[in-house]
Amino acid sequence: MKIIAGALLLAVVLAGAGVYALRESQRVTGLADDEQRLATLQYVDTEASSEVQRAAFDYWRARYERLTPLTGATGDAPAEDPAVLLIAANAMFRASAPDPANTRASVERLDRVLEAYGDVLRADPANMEAAYNYEYVSRLRETVARGRYVARKPPAMALSEDLPVGPTVHGRPGNPPPEVPTDAFKTFSPLQQDERGELMRLDRSRAPRGRG
After folding, report:
1. N or C: which end of the chain has fewer CB within 10 A?
2. Which residue in 107, 161, 187, 206 sits closest to 115, CA to CA?
3. Per-residue pLDDT averaged across 139-163, rounded?
4. Ordered DSSP codes for 56-107
5. What angle do CA 62, 133, 123 make, to 5 degrees?
């Protein structure tokens, strides 16, 4: 009788462990799929995606108008997650490019950006990115207020046809420095094995021989 009871207990334990392992496997698989879509730029705006991932998706697709309300600047309730709040503050900064022709409005927009980063720091005082961005925007605001801001021109052309158009999760496509001509860049290809061997033989033949 004890043997049967022990076997039943073992079966229940094993069944419970199996159910837990199955659920954990499904959770890990879902997270891996989300990370793969994020790394390969294959975004999906579904309920299965986390709030942070959806915010990152909107940010890198330059949908700043969706994120700005999350800062609470438009009267809506701000996001509770500091990570989402930081993304929203970054989006507000991107949408608040200073206009040298309108210093007052530019300073007012940057003041709201500083408030958004301040909210992030109050929610997460150890957030180094928010602290850095707050300092950067503070200095930018001071530069704009003094009338010393000079707007930078966007890149005139893409560096390569293989690059995506517009911002992505990996950043913004760049260009070579405008003052450097494109023909100044040289492409170096690795030598073949027989070419390396020939080069090594030439080097040995040219090496000075000691007197003795």
Report:
1. C
2. 107
3. 71
4. HHHHHTT-HHHHGGGGTTTSSPPPSSHHHHHHHHHHHHHT----TT-HHHHH
5. 95
| Structure tokens belonging to residue 197 | 């061997």
- Please report, in angstroms and rounded to a whole number, the separation of the first and last CA atoms in the chain: 96
Beta bridge partners of 168: 171
Q: How far is CA 127 from CA 73, 133, 139, 211, in A?
A: 21, 10, 19, 67
The string of pLDDT tens digits covering residues 39-68 is: 555 555 444 358 888 888 888 888 889 898
* DSSP single-letter state for residue 152: P
How many other C-beta atoms are found inside a 10 Å radius of the C-beta of residue 208? 5
For the chain, the structural domain boundaries read: 67-149
Q: Between vectors from CA 115 to CA 112 and to CA 119, what angle results, nearest 5°?
A: 145
State pLDDT tens for residues 84-113.
999 999 999 998 888 888 889 999 999 999
